[in-house]
Design goal:
The protein has five helices and no strands. It has 142 residues and is an all-alpha fold. It has a domain of 63 residues.
Length: 142
């Protein structure tokens, strides 16, 4: 009985679908569609807005400049012992690192080794991140 009911519904649907006239798009359908797409592309939704504005970049650059100036002109105290000497029970001997000295580069500049290594590491990581993000956003835009 279920099969008979399904056949009747199927026949009814076939009959009515065949009676429905085919709709044709208007003469300027493609032109109107492309105009709508162009309007959507220029809307504020897809407008590029940088994550960090130019004002914030200026503030970041001035803070870095201030700290760099302070690091250059303010004398720091010499460290009593290196951080590697304070780490207990390391099986690898890092004593060769105490022979590395940057004091001969700029004699008037007195920056602790920790500050110098931190600034160097920060600079390297900053440039790596900048190039990575630039490539990422270039791929995303194209």
């Amino acid at each position: 009985m279920e099969e008979n009911k399904n056949k009747n519904i199927d026949a009814f649907l076939k009959k009515h679908v065949q009676e429905i006239p085919l709709e044709t798009p208007s003469k300027d359908f493609t032109k109107n569609l492309m105009q709508q797409i162009t309007i959507e592309e220029t809307s504020n939704v897809t407008k590029y807005v940088p994550l960090i504005s130019k004002k914030v970049w200026g503030v970041i650059a001035s803070i870095i400049a201030i700290f760099s100036t302070i690091a250059i002109f303010v004398p720091f105290q010499k460290e009593e012992a290196s951080l590697l000497d304070k780490i207990p029970e390391i099986p690898v001997d890092f004593s060769f690192l105490t022979n590395i000295s940057f004091s001969g580069l700029y004699e008037a500049l007195s920056i602790s080794n920790t500050t110098l290594y931190t600034m160097l590491l920060f600079s390297i990581l900053f440039f790596i991140q900048a190039f990575y993000l630039k490539g990422y956003f270039n791929k995303k835009l194209h």
